[in-house]
Design goal:
64% helix; mainly alpha; 209 residues; single chain; elongated; 8 helices
């Protein structure tokens, strides 16, 4: 068997030692590399840092009961009615408040009556046909919204001059606008749901309160 010379064997052992040392250095460097660092969330509890994990969302579904379905149906009906009638209420508020502003300073009853007659065609054009197409429920919602937009400012004018309008016009609008303008609109109480929907309509269509 061929034996290595002592100096040759010593050189080989030195080379192997260097290779082992080099491999250990590379391994140590790889273990501390930033590319292998795992970031995780943690919380500090009573001075200790504890790893924290967020559990996946868990959704629970329950079968709708009769009461919840009824409430949803009522809300949907109200929402639809507000979307249909609010543009009319907004326009009615502009016209009626304008009439109120122009007649407030008139001392003569006849002058006030004559001015309102000049606005009759405008009111007919704006509301006669649309109102006849509304359901009774939508009409009730519209009355609430008219109250919201006018704050009852024009009630006395309508009451005072009801006889001055043509019979056909009042047959159309009296049911919707008459004494029901006295009904309160409580945005923070009974009409809170309606108010939320109105705000939704205002945001969607760019109305200003």
């Amino acid at each position: 068997m061929h034996r290595l010379k002592p100096h040759t064997a010593s050189a080989i052992r030195s080379i192997l030692s260097l290779l082992v040392l080099l491999l250990l250095t590379i391994a140590a460097t790889a273990q501390t590399s930033s590319n292998d660092t795992l970031l995780t969330t943690a919380i500090v509890y009573e001075g200790d840092t504890i790893e924290a994990k967020q559990m996946p969302h868990v959704f629970f579904y329950s079968k709708a009961n009769e009461a919840s379905m009824s409430d949803k149906a009522k809300w949907t009906r109200l929402r639809n009615a507000v979307y249909v009638t609010f543009p009319y209420a907004k326009r009615a508020g502009v016209v009626m408040n304008d009439i109120n502003a122009h007649t407030t300073g008139m001392s003569s009853r006849s002058d006030r009556h004559q001015y309102i007659k000049t606005r009759e065609k405008e009111l007919k054009k704006e509301f006669a046909d649309p109102l006849t197409n509304l359901s009774v429920y939508q009409g009730k919602v519209l009355m609430k919204l008219i109250n919201r937009e006018t704050h009852n400012n024009c009630y006395e004018i309508i009451k005072d001059y009801k006889g001055g309008f043509t019979a056909r016009f009042w047959q159309t609008v009296a049911f919707f606008f008459g004494s029901n303008l006295k009904q309160p609109y409580d945005a923070n109480g009974d009409d809170a749901e309606m108010e939320k929907i109105v705000r939704e309509v205002e945001r969607m269509y760019g109305y200003r309160s």
